Amino acid sequence: MITISSERGLVRIETWEDVESQPGFKQEINPKEVKLDAIIGRYRLPDYVVCGLSSCHHKHFCGYLVTTKEGTITNIGKDCGKTHFGVDFETLSRKFDRDMANAERRETLQAAQAKLDGWLSEVDTLKDQDKGASWLNKQIKAIRDLPEKVRDALGKMVRDRSPVVTKQRLAAKQEKEIMVEMRSLKEEDAEGPVYVDDEVGSLDGLAALYPENDIRELLIKDVHAGLVEVQEMDIESASEHELRTRAKWVNEVDTKLKQCRDIIKTGVRFFDAENISLLAEICDTPEDEKQVMAFARRYKPKQS
């Protein structure tokens, strides 16, 4: 890649031949006979190019395009520039790299502003569609309507990142004997009641409840709020810190939107009548079981 900073902004040049055709370009200059004026571009290439300093001639993949006080243009590597022009080159190269980075960030943000309408429209669609983000957020809040034991079990499943649903029961005498023999249970403890967990199924879509998949935090507080900030941003007067953080953020918008779509799909699978009804296996009382099944019926498909 070859990039030159010009009055028109950043200019990308395709080939090294195009660089050599620039007015004033020389393939070789004597650093003892010229004074460095400015750095006007940089390059990183798949093939070697020869350093333009007559006292160097090393081949390198990357470097800078510079102008001299005498009006010539040539290419020099970073180490070559530091060796032959000292502090002047280091100061100029640091400033150029910073200016180039900020110019590229402005380009990124300008391109993002051109895409804002499409992004904001997608946010609205994901939020307001049937069984979209607003629906999912409402269903997650409604989990409080489940019995306390079921809520506690769901919380543990989320913490353990395990969708397996288990039902606790008293261990049979033979099971306790096996546990003692396998040394997973002390012999004196086998005298009293011992409980074991039986797997009764696996919940689909549990990841929709993970804290990092909070759909409101991601879609509304992060993506939507961030897009509004970019929309209102004065790119030309923005600080370097603002350019850096916002440019990095907009490069992640498409990924975040895909994540939101995936979370919503996962949530739809979780809040399914058959899936939710599996939680009734956790219940100890008929009242709790009835409460879970009433909750599950909310997600039965409507009869047409």
Please name the defining characteristics of this protein:
18% strand, alpha+beta, 304 residues
3D architecture notes:
- There is one protein chain.
- This protein has 304 residues and is α+β, with helices and mostly antiparallel strands.
- It folds into three domains: 2-108, no CATH class; 116-163 and 203-297, no CATH class; 167-200, no CATH class.
- The protein is built from eleven helices and seven strands.
- The chain has helices spanning 16-20, 78-114, 116-128, 133-142, 148-160, 173-181, 215-232, 240-250, 253-270, 273-277, 286-297, and strands at 2-6, 9-13, 36-50, 59-68, 73-76, 164-170, 195-202.
- Strands 2-1-3-4-5 form a five-stranded antiparallel sheet. A two-stranded antiparallel ribbon has the order 6-7.
- Helix 7 (215-232) packs antiparallel against helix 9 (253-270).
- The longest helix has 37 residues, at 78-114.
- The two termini are 60 Å apart.
How would the blueprint of this fold be written?
Layout (H helix, E strand, L loop, with lengths): L1 E5 L2 E5 L2 H5 L15 E15 L8 E10 L4 E4 L1 H37 L1 H13 L4 H10 L5 H13 L3 E7 L2 H9 L13 E8 L12 H18 L7 H11 L2 H18 L2 H5 L8 H12 L7
Antiparallel strand pairs: 1-2, 1-3, 3-4, 4-5, 6-7
Helix pairs in contact: 2-8, 3-7, 3-9, 7-9
